[in-house]
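Quick one before lunch.
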Amino acid sequence: YFYSNETTPSWKKVNYNSVYKDIAGLLEDEDYDDGSYGPVFVRLAWHASGTYDKKTRTGGSDGGTIRHTAEAGHGANNGLEHARDRLEPLKKQYPNISYADLYTLAGVVAVQELGGPTVRWRPGREDKTEADCTPDGRLPDAAQGADHVRDIFYRMGFNDQEIAALVGAHALGRCHTSRSGFDGPWNASPTSFTNFFYTELLNSTWVPKKWNGPFQYVDKESGQFMMLPADMAFKKDSEFRKYVEKYAADQDAFFEDFAKAFSKLLELGVKFPEDAPVYEFKTLE
Ligand code: CCH
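Model of the CCH complex:
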């Protein structure tokens, strides 16, 4: 640099390969849910990013505003404190990483370490204040169908193919009555990243769950697995269903398309420093 007093920006002082390894070390916990924080890390990364509005260029992961009470308190974000609290010691260990980078990187680590594809990721997001939180209502409502899902994801700038690829993340994790009100996992291996969201959606018979909770589906055969009304839209809507059939038949195609769409999601609205490198992290052994 020409100016000798130029200070190094904080994002450059972080060893991201080392953060990756340390996040990976936080995934397993036999006392939490199905034994892994991976699913809730993916959900944190997605909800941090999915507030983006391409028209006003507001929201998105930049700013790390999901940590502030105003946004953390949105109904859709119930339960994400489990992910943030689990990651907090790493913010102490790496004070130069932004929350926005930490939360998005945690989603990448979880996808990769649970057996999913390599997701390209860049550092350089900057944290912002509570005043930069987005208004409530930008994330999808699971009780609604295809029109609503399209409204929400088109607002972010995604097309039908990308939306259908992203929702395959529902191979991971579960619904909690204490968080969303819905109940149960989508399949029998909620801590493995697979194309099972699509295979289950197509191959099982889904019937309304008989209970006092919100309307949702369970598989007729075992009653153990679930689909949200919004999930069922991907089976009923013919345009979405084309991709569901493709990804059910071809896990590699799903992995490739998911990796691209997830990486795009985590970058919506972010103005990266010009010299921010793209990382393709190696999965740990
Ligand atoms: Fe999702 N998701 N999601 N989802 N989601 C829930 C849980 C997870 C919707 C609703 C819900 C994506 C899209 C949608 C994950 C990743 C993604 C829950 C249960 C609801 C409700 C929350 C609870 O009770 O804990 C709706 C509606 C849509 C789209 O219309 C996208 C996109 C992604 C990521 C790419 C993951 C992972 C979970 C499991 C979380 C956990 O704690 O196990």
